[in-house]
């Protein structure tokens, strides 16, 4: 990955307002009339309103003038109090509007104070409306901003009749004063909105628009409407993204081939990788191969000791395939480079087959490291009388817990936590923390509720099923998760399943093949930017690109599943927001601030540079401006910074394309808009060149053929970012008067290994 094709985009936690620029929206230089008999002062006015007519039905959604979703103000609004529960103003903006109001009122005839004051306040406060962007024509960044919000004709007529002298105070534009103060029809036509439901004050009375305002948007089928931003692209099966928890807010993205890249808070990527061990990592170009670089975790005290841990497939000198978990350190001379010579092996496990390699590493809130291993591969865990997963004397098919800060008396490079559940069992390995797992792919620690800390420390995992069920589990000390006796809630091995001694932990959720075929575990959202998502466990399915969420019911402690739909042109019509993603969901991640991401690809080969990183955005509600601000600790960079270049078209770019172009596919069904392949099932061979004939089959035939067939249908598209047009302020300043009221050179994709017909047929017969 030598070419600079995969940079990350930085989306700061508070949405900065664009620099406002004065634009004369309504110059009245002459008179022209439309075919409808409505008079307009200039052709540009008609053009503006025509654009609104074209896009109004698509873009009528809650949005503020800074292009972001509305929010709940952190403090009481004294002036525009109608929007103190949900809108687009914080206390500072509310005070600014109030000051402008009193400045205007100083110029109003005292006899009209009461009547005109109400109109003027209502009009000024529309900046705080959850639909401010629609009222001011701000949803399309290419159109100029109105000086005044869209008013319903009757309301506008009453305002003009009683308070037309205030027009010159609200809009500091002499041509408009001359042509509009005396012509009510002309003035109200200028303020007319194509969609009558959104004009003020009708927008306040529309129950459809205000129903569940501020909650996560659901479509008619109950699918949660979320949006995405593209953060990185051009990645070769990105298997994970982690942060170092060192306040630098860097993101470390690992590719299946064994390369880790550093993304900085400004969205750029460093040209030189943090770590490159592709010469050691066993990965192949075979579609769906599960081997490769699989896991990474930073030590909880990384800021002070510079230690981190990796989990990868490799082949030893005797050509035996193994899993290796090792410790490395960062270079003392460069905080953005690991020292490959510092590698210290902690644990090695021989892999009986090429699949089911596990791969998750993480540190719990107890400071111990948790390792998640697969059951050894093949199908049905055929190893021994009960399989590896139920055999506590083997480390395969387990959740392991070790103390990396100590050494065992027997010479092991780690210590066994004294409270591990099987330390006193002579028939069990002391590292075992939980067992009976098949192939857990992606686990995460819940940070806990930001206020109450409820849920803190829970470990959620997605366990990939055999051929009937995929499941989500919460890890319990000493727990038996049932495999191979059970798959999901049902029996798999009938004889083992009816064993009365089997005391297994049931999943919190399981789904069948009608929903998906290979679960990718996710995270419980605990970030700041999208408060509606707090407590939602968001995960997906690798094979069909389906995104889902689980919500825990407080009274019953049961989990309710909802699908997540991406790409609604109405819900996601914000600058920088995209409407599609690559289908094959490889992994989920969270950054240092707790915001949630996922990685997917359109072609699941470890060598294919078609992987992308996306960030979840809730279009219905954001945090108040300034609440999510953070100051990353600066880091010295010796490597060149490569700026991020987006490839995906945003929703607004798609809407601005000529009408001959087909509109983007709406994600009305809970599947990915563009198929892609995941790193969860695709891993690459090391630079130590291994002949295909000497390597174990990468995947069982049926599964590999399915992934390959689906991946061929989808090719990533290059996207071009559209320039934005700056806006005017909603209202110009008044004459100053003291108020008494308020102060990569591209690497060629290796040719796919050709296999003899007999081997292909053999793989087809094998199950996954």
TrEMBL record:
- Superkingdom, according to UniProt? Eukaryota
Comp. bias (Basic residues): 714-724, 735-744, 754-768
Which segments carry the region annotation Disordered? 655-768
InterPro entries for the chain: 6-blade_b-propeller_TolB-like, Glc/Sorbosone_DH, Quinoprot_gluc/sorb_DH_b-prop
Ranges of Polar residues composition bias in the record? 657-671
Domain Glucose/Sorbosone dehydrogenase, by residue range, is 236-561
Which Gene3D superfamilies does the UniProt entry name for this protein? TolB, C-terminal domain
Q: What is this protein called?
A: HIPL2 protein
| Species whose genome carries this gene | Ardeotis kori
């Amino acid at each position: 990955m030598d070419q600079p094709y995969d940079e990350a985009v930085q989306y700061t936690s508070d949405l900065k307002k664009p620099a406002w620029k004065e634009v004369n929206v309504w110059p009245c230089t002459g008179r022209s009339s439309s075919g409808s008999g409505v008079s307009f002062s200039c052709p540009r006015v008609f053009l503006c309103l025509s654009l609104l007519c074209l896009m109004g039905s698509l873009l009528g959604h809650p949005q503020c003038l800074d292009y972001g979703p509305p929010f709940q103000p952190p403090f009481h609004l004294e002036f525009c109090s109608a929007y103190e529960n949900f809108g687009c103003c914080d206390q500072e903006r509310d005070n600014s509007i109030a000051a402008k109001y009193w400045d205007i009122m100083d110029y109003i005839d005292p006899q009209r104070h009461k009547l005109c004051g109400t109109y003027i306040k209502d009009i000024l406060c529309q900046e705080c409306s959850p639909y401010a962007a629609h009222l001011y024509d701000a949803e399309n960044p290419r159109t100029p901003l109105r000086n005044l919000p869209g008013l319903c004709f009757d309301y506008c007529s009453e305002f003009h009749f009683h308070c037309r002298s205030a027009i010159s105070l609200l809009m500091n534009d002499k041509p408009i004063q001359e042509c509009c103060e005396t012509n009510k029809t002309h003035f109200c036509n200028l303020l007319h909105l194509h969609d009558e439901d959104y004009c003020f004050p009708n927008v306040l009375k529309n129950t459809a628009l205000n129903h569940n305002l501020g909650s996560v948007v659901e479509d008619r089928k109950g699918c949660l409407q979320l949006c995405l931003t593209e953060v990185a692209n051009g990645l070769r099966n990105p298997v994970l993204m982690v942060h170092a928890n060192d306040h630098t807010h860097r993101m470390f993205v690992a590719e299946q081939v064994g390369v880790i890249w550093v993304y900085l808070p400004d969205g750029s990527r460093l040209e030189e990788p943090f770590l490159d061990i592709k010469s050691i990592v066993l990965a192949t170009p075979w579609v769906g191969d599960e081997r490769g670089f699989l896991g990474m975790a930073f030590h909880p005290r990384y800021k002070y000791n510079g230690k981190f841990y990796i989990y990868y497939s490799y082949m030893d000198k005797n050509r035996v395939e193994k899993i290796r978990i090792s410790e490395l350190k960062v270079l003392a001379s460069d905080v953005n480079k690991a020292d490959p010579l510092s590698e210290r092996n902690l644990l090695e496990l021989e892999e009986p087959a090429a699949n089911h390699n596990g791969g998750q590493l993480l540190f719990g809130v107890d400071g111990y490291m948790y390792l998640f291993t697969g059951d050894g591969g093949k199908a049905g865990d055929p190893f021994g009388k009960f399989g590896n997963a139920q055999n506590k004397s083997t480390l395969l098919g387990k959740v392991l817990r070790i103390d990396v800060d100590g050494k065992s008396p027997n010479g092991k490079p780690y210590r066994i936590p004294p409270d591990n559940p099987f330390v006193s069992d002579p028939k069990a390995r002391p590292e075992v923390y939980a067992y009976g797992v098949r192939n857990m792919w992606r686990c995460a620690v819940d940070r806990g509720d930001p206020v109450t800390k409820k849920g803190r420390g829970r470990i959620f995992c997605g366990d990939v099923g055999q051929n009937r069920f995929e499941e989500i589990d919460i890890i319990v000390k000493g727990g038996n998760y049932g495999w191979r006796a059970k798959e999901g809630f049902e029996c798999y091995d009938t004889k083992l399943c009816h064993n009365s001694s089997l005391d297994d932990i049931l999943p919190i959720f399981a789904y069948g093949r009608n929903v998906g075929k290979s679960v990718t575990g996710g995270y419980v959202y605990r970030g700041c930017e999208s408060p509606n998502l707090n407590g939602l466990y968001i995960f997906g399915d690798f094979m069909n690109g389906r995104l889902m969420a689980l919500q825990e019911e407080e009274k019953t402690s049961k989990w309710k599943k909802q699908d997540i739909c991406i790409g609604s042109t109405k819900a996601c019509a914000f600058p920088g927001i995209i409407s599609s993603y690559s289908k094959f969901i490889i992994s989920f991640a969270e950054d240092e601030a707790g915001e949630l991401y996922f990685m997917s690809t359109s072609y699941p080969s470890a060598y294919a540079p078609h992987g992308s990183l996306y960030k979840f955005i809730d279009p219905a509600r954001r945090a108040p401006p300034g609440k999510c601000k953070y100051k990353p600790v600066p880091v010295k960079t010796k490597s060149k910074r490569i700026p991020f270049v987006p490839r995906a078209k945003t929703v607004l770019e798609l809407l601005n394309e000529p009408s001959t172009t087909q509109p983007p596919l709406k994600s009305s069904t809970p599947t990915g808009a563009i198929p892609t392949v995941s790193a969860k099932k695709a891993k690459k061979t090391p630079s130590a060149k291994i002949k295909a004939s000497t390597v174990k089959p990468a995947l069982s035939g049926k599964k590999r053929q399915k992934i390959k067939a689906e991946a061929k249908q989808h090719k990533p598209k290059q996207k071009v970012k559209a320039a934005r047009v700056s806006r005017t302020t909603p209202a110009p300043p008044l004459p100053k008067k003291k108020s008494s009221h308020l102060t990569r050179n591209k690497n060629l994709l290796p040719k796919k290994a050709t296999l003899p017909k007999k081997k292909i047929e053999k793989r087809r017969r094998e199950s996954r």
